[in-house]
Amino acid sequence: MEHLAIIMDGNGRWAKARGLPRTEGHRAGGETVRRVLQYCRDANIRYLTLYAFSVENWKRPREEVDALMKLLVAYLAGEESMLHQNQVRLRVMGRREDLPPEARAALQHVEEATAGYERQLILCLSYGGRAEIVDAAKGLAKRIASGELQPEAIDEQTFAGHLYLPDVPDPDLIVRTSGELRLSNFLLWQASYAELYVTPVLWPDFGEADFKAALAAFEQRNRRYGGV
Ligand code: FPP
Fold it and tell me: How far is CA 198 from CA 43, 151, 160, in A?
């Protein structure tokens, strides 16, 4: 498998079950991110995409949003050396202009520092699948307005070329933790032929055995891409 994408869900429920504030669930979820990066290295997975913050997540209480942004900045400061050790390039996917300045600065710093590496950790931040498609449509419309592109020339490849990270291959497998059976606006375009795997395990509890079970399930699938 080349590209694994994960909807990291269940931090709030994990915290609630322990009588802890939701932000403690996110902190524990940050620990899982660290572990999963190691599993991906061991499994030789080149791209790992994580749904860390959706465009809809801005609707959460101010304290929770602030705590998530702080956690992101702390994670970046703490993990930069680990990204270098493992030769992982950090990339961001989403409307980064929505993020607070400290988060943008921290992201830009780590992105630049790791830009030369082959393996990639892609963080979806202020990300929405529909927003991405709308942003791609805007990009195309600008090129049409400037006379650079003819509407008739638009095909799937041209369209995909205007998505946020056009050089990244589509995910092979999308894993969702904590049991919900939906995509929740994640990678709508790119998910067309992805295999889906849902586990009831909450993200903070997601461990190596769960990771291996997801990969094993993927290996059992017979991907036909609409063929026979
Ligand atoms: C979903 O759980 C999780 C999030 C909205 C945030 C994901 C963030 C992290 C895992 C930690 C920070 C990430 C990085 C990259 C350092 P939920 O709050 O929706 O859980 P619930 O559905 O149980 O309420």
Answer: 19, 39, 26
Q: How many domains does the chain have?
A: 1
> Residue 164 — very low, low, confident or very high, per pLDDT cuts 50/70/90?
very high
Q: What is the pLDDT of residues 127-148, one digit of tens each?
A: 999 999 999 999 999 999 999 9
**Looking at residues 56-64, what average pLDDT do you find?**
97
What is the residue range of 10's domain?
Answer: 3-128+170-219
Q: What CATH number corresponds to the domain at position 102?
A: 3.40.1180.10
Give the mutation target among 7, 8, 33, 177 for probing the ligand 1 site: most ligand atoms within 8 A of CB: 8
Dihedral angle of Cα 174, 177, 181, 186, to the nearest 10 degrees = -50
SS3 103: helix
- Classify residue 203: in a domain, yes or no: yes
Question: Ligand 1 pocket: which residues have CB below 6 Å?
Answer: 8-13, 26, 29-30, 33, 50, 52, 57, 68, 71-72, 75, 123, 178, 203
Give the pLDDT confidence of 194-208 residue by residue, as tens digits.
Answer: 999 999 999 999 999
**What would the mean pLDDT of 63-92 be, rounded to a whole number?**
96
What number of helices (H) and strands (E) belong to the chain?
Answer: 7, 6
Q: How far is the CA of 68 from the centre of ligand 1 (A)?
A: 8
Please report how many Cα atoms fall inside a 13 Å half-sphere around the Cα of residue 60, on the Cβ side: 17
pLDDT tens digits, 43-58: 999 999 999 999 999 9
